[in-house]
Structure formats: C-alpha cells, structure tokens
Specification:
- The protein is α+β, with helices and mostly antiparallel strands.
- The chain has one domain (2-93): Alpha-Beta Plaits, CATH 3.30.70.100.
- The chain has helices at residues 17-25, 61-69, 71-84; strands at 2-10, 36-42, 52-58, 85-93.
C-alpha cells in the first residue's frame, strides 16, 4: 500500500469562490481507477504555512504509477494545479512493515 499526500497553499483569497471551486473540482482525482480513500483536508495547525491537503491510497506501485499518468490527473495538474497552487510539498508513504529499512 502507498499513501500519497500533498499539502499546499492556493493563490486564491481565503474563502473565495475560486478557492472553493478548486477544492470541489479536485474530487475528480478520487474517481481515477486505483485511487482509494481520497480525502480533501483543511490544515488546522499553526505550525505550517500550508492550508490544505489531499490524501489517497493505492494498492501498489503499479496503481500509483497508473494514477500519475492517467488523463484525468494529467489534465487536473496542467489546467488547475500548475495555475492555482502557490506552494506545495508531496510525500508518499508505505507502512514500515513493507518498507526496506
């Protein structure tokens, strides 16, 4: 299992219609085959500058790679992510019992 996470800030004003539209439209990522447990998250800690996060899981590396190249994901990145995200950090995890130590 791979858990793919990304935290980010948007270029839009806080609470704006553009911000809400981006977060709503991102739901399409959860429809991509192989994606499980897709979540859109609001960051609540004062310890980081990032405001939002996405989290999703994949059964294995093949499912994750298929997601990355899927036309829905590519389109969202090109048409929305690159234009509307100000800063981000991406982290992918596997459970420690599956990771080489």
């Amino acid at each position: 299992m791979i858990r793919h996470t990304v935290v980010f800030t948007l270029r839009h004003a806080v609470g704006s219609l553009k911000e809400k539209s981006f977060l709503r439209d991102a739901e399409v990522l959860g429809d991509i085959p192989g994606v499980t447990r897709f979540e859109r998250l609001a960051q609540v800690s004062g310890k980081t500058k990032y405001r939002f996060g996405f989290s999703m899981e994949f059964a294995d590396q093949d499912a994750y790679e298929s997601y990355n190249g899927h036309p829905i994901h590519v389109k969202f990145v090109e048409e929305r992510w690159l234009r509307e995200v100000d800063e981000f950090m991406e982290i992918d995890y596997v459970p420690l019992n599956l990771a080489p130590l």
